[in-house]
Structures are given as structure tokens and as C-alpha cells.
Design brief:
It is a single chain. This protein is an alpha/beta fold. The protein is built from twelve helices and six strands. Strands 1, 2, 3, 4, 5 and 6 form a six-stranded parallel sheet that branches. Strand 5, helix 11 and strand 6 form a beta-alpha-beta unit. It is globular and about 45 Å long.
């Protein structure tokens, strides 16, 4: 299923403008000419890194499931322990080291861009601040939108905007967008909203691909997720659940590569 043209109208205009280096005044946060130039400067760097076989810089981007609440280091630790086969050593990147264990700090793999409690619209303004020149960005976001009563349509609209901003600031990066994991316990009734949101995730990525953004892909974190691994809060996985998530990220990176 793809979203309607009217649904994407505003963000299509934004990305077209940003790609030409013009200022964008109609959206919040604002992107200036300098911002757009800053984003596109990354292209030659990424190509050179790929050719030299240097580190694959992976930026986990999202909410508390990215930070890893509920399990030591979340899925991030599992990716470090069992790295994807991308032809280069991986390096976790971001601006936060919160919720990272001593082991990840000691290994220099503690960084991420996971912000507990943030909705999609609250993550978007942090894209420029969290620019790290990543080769691959792992996005799991939208759960808090549903928990905070935003509904799947608002969450999906904001996700479309957010992914387009990620593309604008990281034009050469591989961007993997997750279908969000299911909920349990008192939040189980929200799974209908989660499922509807995940249909729109497919639509957003399909539309982007049709527009030429071929390095954006979906990772299905919902189908087959072991809900028995969710903590008593019904939101956060335990170590086994995060290991399952890491396996999904790893499988997609193995298939597509990092660069």
C-alpha cells in the first residue's frame, strides 16, 4: 500500500527544494542553504570510505528501544558482539552514550541517537544536531506516538517528514526503517494502531524508492516478534527480544551492505 499524493505533497516540495540547496521556511525545524550544502558535502566522503574499506559507521536513531531500555545495551550490544558481514568493521555512532554498558564504553561502541519518550516529530529536530556522517542509519520510531495518543495517521505523516530529513542530511547513507515491534499487557489494544502504522511504513518507503531514493529500506520488526520477551511494561524487550531485533538489522545489512 502506498500513501496518497496529497499525503506527501508538503514533504515532496520540501525535499525537492532541499536537494537544490534552497532555504525551506514552511517546515519546523528550518533548513537553510548552508544546511543543505552541509548535507551534500558528505557524498564524496562516503564514496571514498567505501572504496577504502574503512569502518562502517552505524547510527541507531530512535526512542527508548534504540537506547536499549529493558536490556543491557539493547540491540546495539548484540550488533557489536555479532557484527553484520558488511566487509568492514562497524562503529556505532551518535551523540548519546546513555544506557550503554561499561563494556560498550570501553570498546568505544557506546554512541547512539536513542531518545527515550520521544515521538517521531520530536526526533526530527535532532537530525541535524546528531549528524555524524553515518553510512547506515537504523530507525525504530513511532511507538511513543501511539502511546501518547497521536494515532497512526499522525505518526505516519511525521515519519515521512523525518525520513526525508534524514535523507537530506545523509544523502549517501543507507536508511533502514523498522516496522515497530508489537505491544503487550495493558498496551496490547494499541496493536491495531501499530499494525496500521506499519502498513504506512511500507507505503512511505515504497514511495521514496519510486522517487529514486533507493537506499531506503524497510526492516520488519513486527512479524514474528517474540512478545514473551517484552517486559512487564509491555513496551520494552528483554535481552532476548533485543537479540531478535539485532538479528533483523543484521540480516538486512548482510543483504544490502553498509555503503
Amino acid at each position: 500500500m502506498t500513501l496518497s499524493n496529497s499525503f506527501f505533497g508538503l514533504t515532496l516540495a520540501f525535499l525537492s527544494c532541499a536537494s537544490m540547496g534552497c532555504a525551506v521556511d514552511s517546515m519546523d525545524p528550518e533548513m537553510t542553504d548552508d544546511d543543505a550544502a552541509f548535507a551534500t558535502d558528505d557524498e564524496d566522503v562516503a564514496e571514498a570510505e567505501s572504496e577504502l574499506g574503512v569502518e562502517c559507521k552505524i547510527q541507531p536513531f530512535g526512542d527508548s528501544l534504540t537506547a536499549g531500555i529493558g536490556g543491557i545495551d539493547g540491540y546495539r550490544g548484540q550488533l557489536v558482539l555479532f557484527p553484520p558481514a558488511v566487509g568492514a568493521p562497524i562503529r556505532m555512532a551518535g551523540l548519546s552514550g546513555d544506557y550503554s554498558s561499561y563494556n560498550l564504553w570501553a570498546a568505544g561502541q557506546h554512541l547512539h541517537s536513542g531518545y527515550p519518550g520521544f515521538r517521531v516529530d520530536q526526533l526530527t529536530p535532532w537530525i541535524q544536531t546528531n549528524y555524524v556522517g553515518a553510512n547506515a542509519i537504523l530507525v525504530h520510531a513511532g511507538t511513543n506516538d501511539l502511546l501518547q495518543g497521536q494515532g497512526h495517521l499522525n505518526a505516519a505523516y511525521d515519519l515521512d517528514i523525518m525520513v526525508r530529513w534524514l535523507i537530506a542530511f545523509n544523502p549517501t547513507a543507507r536508511i533502514l526503517v523498522a516496522k515497530i515491534i508489537p505491544l503487550a499487557g495493558v498496551y496490547a489494544p494499541l496493536n491495531a494502531e501499530a499494525n496500521a502504522y506499519n502498513v504506512y511504513v511500507d507505503g512511505i518507503v515504497a514511495t521514496l524508492k519510486s522517487q529514486g531514493y533507493v537506499k531506503v529500506d524497510v526492516v520488519d520488526m513486527n512479524t514474528g516478534f517474540p512478545t514473551a520477551t517484552l517486559a512487564a511494561d509491555g513496551i520494552h524487550p528483554d535481552a532476548n527480544g533485543y537479540a531478535w531485533m539485532a538479528g533483523k538489522w543484521r540480516q538486512k545489512l548482510n543483504a544490502l551492505g553498509c555503503f
